[in-house]
From TrEMBL:
Keywords: Aspartyl protease, Hydrolase, Metal-binding, Protease. Transmembrane segments: none annotated. It comes from the Eukaryota. GO terms for biological process: DNA integration; proteolysis. This is Retrovirus-related Pol polyprotein from transposon TNT 1-94. Residues 492-660 form the Integrase catalytic domain. It comes from Dendrobium catenatum. The lineage of its organism: Eukaryota, Viridiplantae, Streptophyta, Embryophyta, Tracheophyta.
Length: 1150
């Protein structure tokens, strides 16, 4: 409503009063306008939104202006309606708009230039306030998490106590400014956790205080304690690098550590200062008893028997054991030091190493264990244990308690026996998941991805509940996959922290095309932790986009920045886009010299490790080579979780995540598995599980990745039962890895072959894509997904007899003539995709289509698409039907099964249940021009997809529809659906969606292109963004990747978007990009036309036109139905967009 109706007398009074009273600013608003910029001294930026918001909100509340920030506050009508139906300006609106615009202008004056473009198009103060809150709220939460992480890891290190406390206060203040708070008790805990071991006694006394302690008191105590620690360190004499152990007396019967009162040492015999037990006068007097209330206890005095228990020793500086088996990692000790024990003697050290102390909740690390056969007890150093595991140890007269300082949970409790505190090793459980008999050593070797014997036994020794046979065993898969030359000397230089240096390289092309079209992979290796991230790719040009996403992910995950990237000189790494991106973010790019692969040796060796492990996984289970991406991802997953000699026998996972990996969930790659079928996907008599093949683990799903061979689909489930002694591919007729595929040299370990202008990590000349297809077994390339594993179709005309001689001919290496290769590609792909179902009854027979329909129905319900009402008596009720479409990747492989509920809009009546229907779509010339511009300026072209796009458009008409088949309401089966959203099939649905979507785009600054309304342009002084719309598919490109990402984020807040990455398929046209060319093709669409005409079994021709004129046509009647003929001609007309060779023939036939 633009006007309100008033009585004549009231209206005249209001007009008369407004004529004499022009809108004026209130005194409170004048105060705010004159002081707001001085009050908010720091303009709004990306980092100070909470502080800025707090200041603006307080000054508005103080002056009664907070209502202008409320978007729900009603706005006065712009005009008033007289009784004679004429309008007059509303003085209340004039006063409101004056106040609001002045306040908005004052608020904009406190916003920095980098943020101001986000709000320039907004009208009111409330809109500016709400937009800024939406944009920066999530960023604020991320900053709080980052600051708390820094607070958790802060430590005193080499700084002074005052600086350390100031750093903590600064972090706490920043968290408070971000809208969160840290409790005072947590601040005290962070302060104590960051103190070094020299403050251990101080920390113990603070934690055991009965009275609460505030921060001011703690600051005072710490400043004083710093002086004492520095004084003690200056006066104390070192103990000549010797190790002490075995329950020395602490004075007057107490176990407290107490400060040293002088430079003299305490004798362990007479308890006097100034000498040690070796120089004591009473050393030879066995009857001497010191004058004290408690006799000091020395475990070494009792040498009668060896104990398997560990004893807690608060006086020991290192862990001590008599049993070498307690060391999981052991090294001979070559030093001359000894261990001074309670009776004054010094015993020799034979070995040193590391071990684990199992507890019911987790394993505790024992990082410094000394082995001496001369003692008979195992001792745990309290100081070493608490420092290595971040725990607190509390002693009581009845026992002791271990408490985790991070979670504050009790992790272990033990008794006090005869004045000592023993830890009994846990009994080995026979039913634990990790406890396997020695006969199952091979099983765990397979589960862990075939590690070396040394690494395998190292893992077993660190996991006390995993028992294997320590004898050497022979693994044939390892021998075949890992044979190599002698090891060269490696560089010992390593980065000091995570992300200081990232190694990267590309491997490929693979000898077999995967189901999803993958031919390459790129890996990134952190030099410090040696953790590896691997990403399969369809083409090398994807490296840039993968690195951009990887950088965002890993820097957010680790709260660190990538400082240096080391690669070879391949074209994918020296591209303009990647070079500019690295310079923009301050990342140093180190490029290895030509013919010098050793300079990128970490990545080269990682290739070898990954591929060798992949070969072992594939060979053990006889998995076909087309599953190589799953195998390399699984290999990388396992490599990251096993110890490495390059990281001091600590796994990369532990170095990156600061916790030991778990092995309980590991299963053998390629083994049989039985995932649970959900109840809604099966009827009551169907089996509850189905036979699948285990293909690895997932980072996105907390479950196992299983391949259903019967239905040719991937299932992620956590409810899985395994048979790790059964390998479905081993005896399956669909597996022909060794018979029908010649192993390509590309699948061997990379060698050092440098090719100028390309990545020398390809290591062999890259064959044409067609030669790669030649290496794929024909029985894999033409299997009908709906058929069983044994039902295959062969192409005898392309089968060639293998020569038995040793000469490397083209037929042996798969390098055949180009024409035959291309024909093989077309023939295989034309027969690979079955026709989609046309009826509900047909689709209901397939599990995939039933799940697709259920997913679509659930999405409709969540969008509030309709309400069930009684059938109207005087309105038309539209029918509806299910349509089915198999969506394909750019290479023609199956991407997903899509079911869509479509209203039968052909029964709609103009003016009754629809009016306007026109909706513009993208034109092919616009696509070509847009791609040419992006190619010229080297912009990335990204593709977006809107989920259930039409459901975002609301209906203004009243439309009724019958309930969908198969999903009728059981309570009201005769009700009909009253539509609220523009469902697919309605005549006005495309227009409603287009209007809704473009309205949002124009609200954020986009403008329509005059020559093509489906193209919208966002342009400022230095930014140009182009967005092309084709129904629910979008292409976006421009000169600012940051702005593009901001736009995508804004679209995600309004619509459900899918970011598909670099554009590869748009309007049924496949898009493939190289360095300076866009290739457009319609290969899957051509295959669809062949199937529609039932000509997919025919041999291909290089020229579709009759070479003799006039043309002579066959008298046979190929197509008897005119409708089918016209449909095929129309489809061929669309195919001419990218295949102009057939344009003459198509137009001649049309």
């Amino acid at each position: 409503m633009e006007a309100s109706t008033l009585s004549q007398s009231h209206l005249e009074e209001q007009i008369a009063s407004s004529a004499s009273d022009a809108p004026i600013l209130s005194s409170s608003l004048k105060f705010v306008l004159s002081n707001l910029k001085n009050t908010v001294q720091n303009p709004l930026s990306r980092d100070n939104y909470p502080l800025w918001r707090s200041q603006i909100l307080k000054i508005c509340k103080a002056n009664g202006l907070e209502s202008f920030l409320d978007p729900l506050r009603p706005i006065p009508e712009k005009s008033l309606l007289r009784s004679d139906r004429t309008t007059t300006p509303n003085p209340l609106y004039a006063q409101w708009i004056l106040n609001d615009q002045n306040l908005a202008a004052a608020m904009c004056a406190t916003i920095s230039a980098s943020i101001l473009p986000y709000v320039l198009q907004l009208e009111t103060t409330a809109e500016i306030w709400a937009t800024l809150q939406t944009r920066f709220q999530s960023t604020n939460r991320s900053k709080v998490i980052q600051l708390k992480n820094e607070l958790h890891h802060i430590s005193l290190k080499n700084s002074t106590m005052v600086q350390y406390l100031n750093d903590i206060k600064s972090l706490v203040d920043q968290i408070a400014a971000a809208g969160a708070r840290v409790d005072e008790e947590d601040i005290i805990l962070y302060i104590l956790n960051g103190l070094p071991s020299t403050y251990q006694a101080f920390k113990t006394s603070i934690r055991t205080m009965t009275q609460p302690l505030n921060l001011d008191q703690l600051y005072s105590f710490l400043i004083s304690e710093e002086i004492h620690v520095a004084s003690d360190a200056a006066r104390s004499a070192p103990l000549d690098n010797s190790n002490t152990a075995l329950f020395v007396n602490r004075g007057r019967g107490r176990r407290g550590r107490g400060r040293s009162q002088g430079t003299s040492q305490i004798c362990q015999i007479c308890l006097k200062k100034g000498h040690t037990a070796t120089d004591c006068w009473h050393g030879l007097n066995v009857q001497y008893v010191p004058q004290t209330r408690q006799q000091p206890r020395a475990l070494a005095a009792d040498q009668s028997r060896a104990s398997t228990e560990w004893y807690l020793d608060s006086g020991a500086s290192s862990h001590l054991t008599h049993n070498l088996d307690n060391l999981s990692i052991s090294n001979p000790y070559n030093g001359s030091d000894g261990v001074t024990i309670g009776d004054g003697r010094s015993v020799s050290i034979s070995n040193s190493g590391k071990g684990l102390l199992p507890t019911p909740s987790r394993k505790l690390h024992l990082s410094k264990i000394l082995h001496s056969p001369e003692i008979h007890y195992n001792l745990i150093s309290i100081s070493q244990l608490t420092r290595d595991n971040n725990i607190a140890v509390t002693f009581t007269p009845s026992g002791f308690v271990f408490k985790d300082l991070t979670t504050h949970q009790v992790i272990f409790q033990g008794p006090c026996r005869d004045g000592l505190y023993p830890i009994q090793p846990p009994q080995k459980s026979k039913n634990h998941a990790l406890t396997v008999p020695n006969s199952n050593t091979t099983l765990w070797h397979n589960r862990l991805g075939h590690p070396s014997h040394r690494i395998f036994h190292s893992i077993a020794s660190c996991n006390s509940q995993l028992h294997i046979d320590k004898k050497e065993f022979v693994c044939h898969a390892c021998n075949k996959a890992k044979q190599h030359k002698a090891v060269l000397e490696l560089s010992r230089n390593r980065a000091k922290s995570v992300l200081d240096l990232i190694h990267s390289d590309v491997w490929g092309p693979a000898p077999a095309l995967s189901n999803s079209g993958m031919l390459y992979y790129v890996l990134f290796i952190d030099d410090y932790s040696r953790f590896t991230w691997l990403f399969p790719m369809r083409q090398k040009s994807e490296v840039f986009n993968i690195f951009v996403n990887f950088k965002s992910y890993i820097e957010n995950f680790t709260s660190s920045k990538i400082k240096c990237l080391r690669t070879d000189g391949g074209g994918e790494f020296v591209s303009t886009s990647l070079s500019q991106f690295l310079k923009q973010h301050g990342i140093l790019h180190q490029i290895s010299c030509p013919y010098t692969p050793k300079q990128n040796g970490v990545a080269e060796r990682k290739h070898r490790h990954v591929i060798e492990t992949t070969r072992s996984l594939l060979d053990t289970a006889s998995v076909p080579y087309k599953y190589w991406p799953d195998a390399v991802l699984t290999a990388t997953y396992l490599i990251n979780r096993i110890p490495s000699p390059n990281t001091d026998n600590v796994s990369p996972y532990e170095l990156l995540n600061h916790k030991a990996p778990s092995y309980a969930h590991l299963r053998t790659f390629g083994s049989a598995c039985f995932p649970l079928i959900p109840a809604n996907a099966r009827h009551k008599l169907q089996p509850k599980a189905q036979l699948c093949v285990f293909l690895g683990y997932s980072d996105n799903y907390k479950g196992y990745k299983c391949c259903d061979l019967h239905n040719n689909k991937i299932i992620f489930s956590r409810h899985v039962t395994f048979d790790e002694n059964c390998f479905p591919f081993l005896n399956s007729s669909s597996n022909h890895n060794t018979e029908n595929v010649q192993i390509s040299p590309l699948f061997l370990t990379p060698t050092s072959v440098y090719q100028p202008g390309t990545s020398h990590t390809s290591h062999t000349p890259t064959p044409a894509p067609s030669s790669i297809i030649q290496q794929i077994p024909s029985t894999q390339a033409i299997v009908n997904p709906e058929a069983s594993d044994q039902q295959t179709t062969t192409a005898p005309q392309f089968q060639k007899q293998q020569a038995t001689h040793q000469m490397l001919t083209r037929s042996k290496i798969g390098s055949l003539k180009p024409t035959v290769r291309l024909n093989l590609i077309h023939h295989h792909q034309a027969t690979n995709n079955p026709a989609d179902p046309t009826t509900y009854a047909e689709a209901n027979k397939s599990v995939e289509w039933r799940q697709a329909m259920a997913a679509e129905f659930l999405a409709l319900q969540q969008q509030g698409t309709w309400d069930l009402v009684q059938p109207p008596s005087d309105a038309t009720v539209l029918g509806c039907k299910w349509t089915y479409r198999t969506k394909l990747h750019s290479d023609g492989s199956v991407a997903k099964h899509k079911a869509r509920l479509v209203a039968q809009g052909n029964h709609q009546e103009y003016g009754l249940d629809y009016t306007e229907t026109f909706s513009p779509v993208a034109k092919l010339p616009t696509i070509r021009i847009l791609l040419a511009i992006a190619l010229h300026y080297d912009w990335t072209v990204q593709q977006l997809d809107v989920a259930n796009a039409f459901l975002h458009g609301s209906l203004t008409e009243t439309v009724y529809m019958h309930q969908p088949q198969g999903f009728k309401d059981t309570v009201h089966p005769n009700y009909v659906c009253r539509l609220h959203k523009a469902i697919y099939g309605l005549k006005q649905a495309p227009r409603q969606w287009y209007n809704t979507f473009t309205s949002f785009l124009t609200s954020i600054g986009f403008k329509h292109c005059q020559s093509d309304p489906s193209l919208l342009i966002f342009r400022t002084s230095n930014i140009s963004i182009f967005l092309l719309i084709y129904v629910d598919d979008l292409l976006i490109t421009g000169n600012s990747s940051v702005k593009i990402q901001d736009i995508i984020n804004m679209l995600n807040t309004k619509f459900t978007m899918k970011h598909l990455g670099a554009a590869n398929s748009f309007m049924g046209i496949q898009i493939k990009r190289t360095a300076d060319i866009f290739f457009l093709s319609q290969k899957p669409y051509a295959n669809f036309i062949l199937q529609m005409a039932e000509l997919h079994h025919c041999n291909p021709l290089s020229n579709p036109t009759c070479t003799k004129m006039p043309a002579v046509f066959s008298p046979d009647k190929i197509l008897g139905e005119p409708i089918t003929y016209r449909r095929i001609i129309g489809s061929l007309q669309y195919l001419c967009l990218t295949i102009p060779d057939i344009a003459y023939s198509v137009n001649y036939l049309s």
